[in-house]
């Protein structure tokens, strides 16, 4: 399998991290993001949205980090990481939606503004971040993991941009349960970091 990757991307990090945790054999292919490689062939043919990560596994070409996590979990992680029964599957999937929405439009957008100069609405990103972190901290007050009493791809999907929140001016100091959860993820056997998450 090949993962078209950017080391500074939290979305790419989700995939690298999950592959490391499960031992999935992934070859990392760095993408020249600043040079616009993701907007030209062959990558634009693999993902017409012009975004990374992109995973290629033989004839299978997948875009979107959440979809890639689902694929790798089914191939390499089994029910431990992504259950097949209706209720536990839905409980995990609701956090993948949270990652694609609240996390992306909160701490991820705040980081894009502060670290990379994107012209996005910082006040909105901070409001979304505050709401997200309050909900996440309350949820984690009574559990170690987001769902099912064990690490799942729910945790992996939400983790990177929450851990990177300070790079967008979003403090994690008020959220002790979130910080403890980040520590538990970092302590998982096989954990790999990225710039900003060591």
TrEMBL record:
Class of enzymatic activity (EC top level): transferase
Signal peptide: none
E.C. no: 2.5.1.-
Pfam families: GST_C, GST_N
InterPro entries in UniProt: Glutathione-S-Trfase_C-like, Glutathione-S-Trfase_C_sf, Glutathione_S-Trfase, Glutathione_S-Trfase_N, GST_C, Thioredoxin-like_sf
Segments forming domain GST C-terminal: 85-198
Stretches assigned to the GST N-terminal domain: 1-80
Family affiliation: Belongs to the GST superfamily.
Name recorded for this polypeptide: Glutathione S-transferase family protein
